[in-house]
Design brief:
The complex is a heterodimer of chains A (about 180) and B (about 120). Chain A has about 180 residues and is mostly helical. Chain A has eight helices and no strands. Chain A has two domains: about 100 residues, RNA polymerase sigma factor, region 2, helix turn helix motif (Rna Polymerase Sigma Factor, Chain: A, Orthogonal Bundle); about 70 residues, Arc Repressor Mutant, subunit A, CATH 1.10.10.10. Chain B has five helices and no strands. Classes of the chains: A mainly alpha (about 180), B mainly alpha (about 120).
Chain lengths: ~180, ~120
């Protein structure tokens, strides 16, 4: 069942169709929010709000203008940016925590992984805003490069170039610390 | 070992694009590119561990919120179009009747509905 069909069904009053939309997009949405540093209850609040807003505005969604995934992540992006600004204003910006990652069975290995994850987090925060935003969207498997380009308002070539630069910076940050 | 081959291979690895036969061959013989590929693997593993897991029952909670949102928005009986129209008409009729009674009382006191004979 494609998104368009599920949306038509939802608009016709079939609530279960929207449940399928939620189930389809919950994982990429949480992945996106996790990369942005939102964890636990804050990630859940934002994710719920994203789906609720999408539901309320579903009639305004025009499949001829954008894919549903693009539209949904535009809502998520706006909400996340708003939350970032609000949190920053309150000096309570979301900080991703390596503790949230699942621990490896070996304590030494676990510590190494956690340390590496912390370094990646720091490197992510150090990325220029534009690179970071494009890079986060590129990490969502459900979005094609074309959709990321639409979300970011740039050409596919620019998206590719930004992804390459972001990953290169992250790799260098990781390699620097590994040596 | 050509620099062009190194940069092409590394760019493909960075973008997560599949390597061609020639690039795979190059990777197996180039220490520099192997190190780069290994670091990208570590990076991808770290990025995966940053993904926030979906909490249990998340979809149910979203659906509950939607249900309460819809309940709050469900039309009240007096919001229905025909009820609104009927109430407006009734109010207009009352106003009309009262106007007629008033005018009748003023202009023809003998037929005033409220006056005693």
């Amino acid at each position: 069942m494609d998104d368009e069909f599920l949306i038509q069904q939802t608009l016709a009053g079939n609530r279960q169709a929207f449940r399928l939309v939620v189930l389809r997009y919950q994982r990429p949405l949480f992945r996106f929010l996790g990369l942005l540093g939102f964890r636990g209850a804050r990630a859940e609040d934002l994710a719920q709000e994203t789906f609720l807003r999408a539901f309320k505005a579903l009639r305004s969604f025009d499949p001829a203008r954008a894919a549903f995934s693009t539209w949904l992540f535009t809502i998520a992006k706006r909400l996340a940016i708003g939350e970032w600004r609000r949190a920053r204003h309150e000096q309570n910006a979301p900080v991703a925590s390596a503790e949230a990652s699942s621990p490896a069975p070996d304590p030494a290995q676990s510590a190494l992984l956690a340390e590496r994850t912390r370094r990646v987090e720091r490197a992510l925060q150090a990325l220029p805003e534009q690179l970071r935003s494009t890079f986060f969207f590129s990490q969502i498997n459900e979005l094609t490069l074309e959709e990321v380009a639409e979300l970011e308002g740039c050409a596919v070539g620019t998206v590719k170039s930004r992804i390459f630069r972001a990953r290169e910076q992250l790799r260098l940050a990781l390699a620097e610390d590994e040596t | 070992m050509s620099m062009t081959q190194c940069s092409e291979t590394q760019e493909r690895i960075a973008l997560g694009e599949p390597l061609g036969e020639e690039e795979r061959l190059h990777l197996s013989g180039c220490e520099q590119c192997s190190v780069v590929a290994q670091t990208y693997s570590l990076l991808d593993a770290s990025l995966s561990s940053l993904a926030e897991p979906v909490p249990d029952g998340f979809a149910d909670r979203v659906m509950q919120r939607l249900a309460s949102h819809e309940l709050a928005r469900s039309p009240r009986w007096f919001d229905a179009g025909w009820v609104e129209l009927a109430l407006a008409n009734a109010a207009l009729l009352c106003a009309l009747v009262n106007t007629v009674r008033f005018l009748a009382g003023v202009l023809i006191p003998s037929v005033s509905l409220g006056a005693t004979p």
